[in-house]
Amino acid sequence: MAIKKNNKTASNKDINYYKKKYWRFFTFGLLGVLAFFLFASWGLFGSMPSFEDLENPDSNLATEIISSDGVVIGKYFKTNRSQLKYSDLPKSLVEALVATEDARFYEHSGIDGRGTLRAVFSLGTNGGASTLSQQLAKQLFHGEGSKFLPFRIVQKIKEWIIAIRLERQYTKNEILAMYCNVYDFGNYSVGVSSAAQTYFSKVPKDLTMDESAILVGMFKNSGLYNPVRNPEGVKNRRNVVLAQMAKAKMISESEKLRLQALPIALKFKLESHREGMATYFREYLRDYMKKWVTENKKPDGSDYDIYKDGLKIYTTIDSRMQSYAEEAVSAHMKNLQQQFFIDMKNNKNAPFVNITQAETDRIMTQAMKNSVRWAQMKEMDKSEDDIIASFKVKTKMRVFTWKGERDTVMTPLDSIRYYKHFLQSGLMAMEPQTGAIKAWVGGINYKYFQYDHVGQGARQVGSTFKPFVYATAIEQLNMSPCDSILDGPFMIHKGRHHVTEDWEPRNSNHTYRGMVTLKQALAGSINTVSAKLIDRTGPEAVVELTKKLGVKTEIPVQPSIALGAVDITVEDMVAAYSTFANQGVYVKPQFLSRIENKSGEVIYEPIPESHDVLNKDIAFAVIKLLQGVTESGSGSRLRTQGGGSGDNRWTGYPYMFTNPIAGKTGTTQNQSDGWFMGMVPNLVTGVWVGCEDRSARFKSLTYGQGATAALPVWGYFMKLCYADKDLQISKAEFERPANLSIKVDCYQRPAVVKDTTQTEQNTDEFEL
Prior knowledge:
Helices cover 42% and strands 11% of the residues. By secondary structure, the chain is of the alpha+beta class. The C terminus is likely disordered. The protein is elongated and about 135 Å long.
């Protein structure tokens, strides 16, 4: 019996010993885990995000350029990421994301206990356990991390801690939105907003169910499930997402089958600063913002970074009008370019006309020195002779054509001459009352031609300068559009108005019309009348008025400026003409409405600039003069349908406008520059057309004049604008000042003669 008792006692001792050992091990293990979590949260295993970091995670957001009608027309970014609110996400995408990535997202507090235990016991073979909150933590604060198991465990614990903190800091909807904003979908697209634009050319709200499923499928691995490179794999992954949605009762079984049968339909377009809408304007704005950030600091005194601070730049550009302007320029320049190539066919020095070999060599050499090739070879310490020799070696290249890019083989020197053939254009449209720029087209293709012919390029304006002379005459000499003046031979002798030798202007048709009104003279663009007017006012008065109209270029104080021997930008010309439409008040062109930071706080609002230039009566008198141009002058083809010489190049003709239009064509010497300035009461648009080099030009007025080269762009653009009723482009009369003191109605229709012996219904036939 004693032996049995001793054995029982020993057995109890063993059990107690192991119990104590177990609980000691368990306690120390638990304390160790808790300490591990505590040390990790203190940052002993690597830095952890602070409260401020959680409040404002560095999300590296792209700056968005937003049109006046709320469309994102471009971005500045190093990483193309745009921030969305939860309300901006489509319901289908949210449901697909939760069903696929974290089915219990709305139940846990950052860590899914059931999923974690399942993953531990199955050693990860039955799915992972990362919640959306953990995945967001990983995306925001440490990325993929290490593949080494001990470090991986530390990383996972840090994810848990950050996920719990995120759950305390943000609502579930905010976490979903943040996750959708930080994921990299490839092709320079970070976040759902950028991905929707890149792969489907849509804003997220407009995504369909299957498109949402495609993007959610990419969350697993955007490199593998890239719809451009792997459409079959993407389709399979999309169908898995749809199956998960059906499993979660978010869609019906029949809906799942219908969506799974759909093909992968993309509208893929990489977002690039060289492509897309308003490219020239966006580059002009970028240069402006470079200066803006030096003058406007953050509250803490640091500089804004337009490439990562997520600014929202609200512009005055209207995306619809911008689209119409780009379409008009593209349609007409493509048409006119065909004629230019025809004209140059037998020109051995094409596209240059009537210049010497020495002048040609100078142009070509300068073009070589301005090229990227020259700069790159110069950095390689190549000699000038070696660089020039390289321009004569044939090489493969891709070139611009109006039928799309084309691969070819030619020498770089030949490519320079090829590109010199292309006609360029600049267009700007502005509201005269506000100065708001609504459309800006600086050239025909920004990828190949970066020079901006709206804000950068000042070109000779030709007869579009004449209204400034007429306005000066009306103001200084108290003349009216109905006053008569003799169109005949005229000379300003040497010594008068700083003329260094006798100056005798001649009309373009080499004929004289005798007595004409000012309205007839401007409609016919009569040179002798403009010369006589500037002789009476003096060129100083004209230059002074032009400066008041906002023209920034230096204007020579010479009578010859009356015929347009002056270089002015399209931007300045539009602003100057807008002064006439705005009753004599100059308003500086405005392209910004406001700038907001990523939190939506307004950090900048420009102050409009304006000043009085002319009284209302004089401004209206100039408008009436300019209306004569479209009624009986060089702009009358805007109203006709009879055609004429070269009408196959009047793109969009017949235009058949019946509303009041004030305008002026301009053609410079040798047809190097063609202009048209067109105005209706609430929109002023200027168009310039010409080659990069002034010696590259049409040989005749038929195609080189402003009425053929530039006016069709305006006509095409305005037809599109008028067809869009939402734009509310005016067809009304220009506002007539009360108690107008200047005679502007030069022709009074005779009174109707009534024969009282006839019935009232027949009186119309007696009108005279």
